[in-house]
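Figure 2 data, in text form.
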Amino acid sequence: MTPASQPSLTAILSALPEEQQGLLEQLHGAQKHTVAGRDFWLGKLHDQPVALGLSRIGKVSATLTAAVLIGHFGASRIVFTGVAGGLAAGVKVGDVVVAHDFIQHDLDASPLFPRYEVPLYGRSRFPCDPALTALLTLAAGRALASSSHAARPLLAGAQVHCGLIASGDRFVSSADESSRLQAALEGAGHSALAVEMEGAAVAQVCADYGVAFAAMRTISDCADDTAHIDFPTFVTAVASRYAQRIMDELLRSLPAPT
């Protein structure tokens, strides 16, 4: 069977290698494929055919990776795992945000188009797939609440939120920048829960291809002056374990492959 003919292939995009590692270690029948200078791993997790890929950092890299997963490997759905900075009140470090939709906070083609609107699309926000997002939200809740799993929640009181996530090619790392970003988005009617650097691009690619997309982000910081502190430790010790547990729960809930 060629990669492009895999049935009901679920692609799991991870932002960083540390997040992918746990999933890769569980992958049955792993086969490595290199396309466009990127390594992809095909195999099975919980009897589901999957492709693991790294988005790399930024919207351009994420766009190319998503396009390869769909165009070359024939992914029928894409799920993104990663970390993000919290923007909204009540979204704290260790929480999980499941995206309802995405917006590019650094897109401004005015005066030709309204600020944040993607030119020639007539929209500024790209929604995630409702059914897949609902399954991901349930999976996140089960993963964080499970008391029987060997790796229990690492941060007490972790919660799952669902809403708008903002993407941009800039690491938001100061309280002043975070406040200005929130104010600008809210002034245009967009109240974002978190900020990161890839999701909106993948959402747009999936919309163009008609492929289901869902995304979750573990909050690693509050997009303020502490955003750089212990980031590598957080990704390894918290976000990677969250990603593995939530993907385990999600894959178990998917229909049997056809």
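Caption note: The CA atoms of residues 7 and 258 lie 6 Å apart.
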